[in-house]
Amino acid sequence: MLRIMEFVLVLWYKKFMDENKNVLVIAGSSQIGIEAIRLMLDGGYRVYATSRNPVDIEDKNLLKYALDVTDDTSFCALKEKLSDVKFCAVINNAGIAIASPVEFLDESELQKQLDVNLFGLLRVIKHFSSCLVKEGKIINISSMASYGVYPFLSPYCLSKRAADILLRSFSNEAGIKYVSIRPGAIRTKFWTDSIEQNRENFEKFTGKYENIGKYMLDNARKNSLGALEPAAVGRAVFKVLNQKNPKCVINVGLDAHICALASKFLSEDLLNKFIRMALKLKSRKANEYGK
To answer: Which of 31, 207, 221, 229 is 20 to 30 Å from 83 by CA-CA measure?
Structure first.
């Protein structure tokens, strides 16, 4: 009888430990996703990674699945495959960035932005929040853009801020822990991908917006080569994953911390004045550089 009880306890403990070592990563093929996954695998986690493109890692504890975050049918299919799995964390890393002057912003472009960054997160919550263990958490890779201080990136700022509000509201309603990780500029192909995605939008930077458009393109290229390494965000994700009660908002990078402080301590009027001054300066530099 004692041996049977011991056997049952071992099975229960193994199941408990397995559940608390399972992590679902949405959009795991990004450079930030890859860095976080590597740390999780080294830390003994079993990672269920989803993406549209293959995750370029091979490990016995890494399971790969296709997922389109804009397609609810894709979520339903994945949920069916993972119906018996419980997760200690769900990490949402899906995101795109749309750039445009507001007066030239096409409604379809804004919809595209929200479909990935906002409604994609909503689909994650609706399908997988019920798959979390009791002390599980949802980790959203947000952005310093969530502080809303970047002109010409209003669709991106809007989507990130709205996603953080959505997640915070859900957490208060359902009692599930959430963490918003807000990186600054990170050295990834996200910048070059964004340039390609916004090729037609950058043609709208004409007239009074021409010089700032040149600056934004140049700045995106620089960030793709010289910004903070993606491993910094991966370490932040891994640290949050291993904390019982992490902070709700984690800023990564000096620029993200500056945005947070400016948004907290400066009035909106004063912050707007600084933003306009910065825009004039950057526009002037871009004009001089282009001559």
So the answer is: 31
pLDDT for 14 beyond 50:
no
Q: Tokens standing for 98? A: 């749309």
Q: How many CA atoms lie within 13 A of 164 on its CB side?
A: 20
CATH 3.40.50.720 fits 17-290, yes or no: yes
Q: What is the mean pLDDT of residues 186-200?
A: 92
Query: pTM for this structure?
Result: 0.89
Mean pLDDT of 39-66: 94
Write out pLDDT tens, residues 90-106: 999 999 999 999 999 99
Q: What is the mean pLDDT of residues 108-119?
A: 97
Q: CB count, 10 Å around CB of 174? A: 14
Strand 62-66: give its sheet, edge to edge.
62-66, 46-51, 22-26, 87-92, 132-141, 177-183, 249-252
pLDDT at 70 over 70: yes
Using alpha carbons, select from 19, 28, 23 the residue that is nearest to residue 65: 28
Residue 245 CB neighbours (<10 A):
8
Instruction: State the DSSP H helix or E strand holding residue 250, giving kind and residue range, or none if neither.
Output: strand 249-252
Tokens of 81: 């495959």
Structure confidence at residue 20 (pLDDT): 81
Residue boundaries of the structural domains of the chain: 17-290
The phi, psi pair for 65, rounded to 5°, reads -140, 145
Contacts of the segment 258-262: beta carbons below 8 A, 24+ positions apart? 259/144, 259/147, 259/149, 259/184, 260/144, 260/147, 260/182, 262/147, 262/149
Please, what is the Cα angle at 228 between 277 and 31, to 5 degrees?
A: 125
Angle at which helix 119-128 crosses helix 72-81, to 10 degrees, equals 30
Taking each continuous run of H as one helix and of E as one strand, the counts in the chain are: 12, 7
Q: What is the dihedral of CA 174, 179, 180, 185, to 10 degrees?
A: -160
The confidence score (pLDDT) of residue 10 equals 40
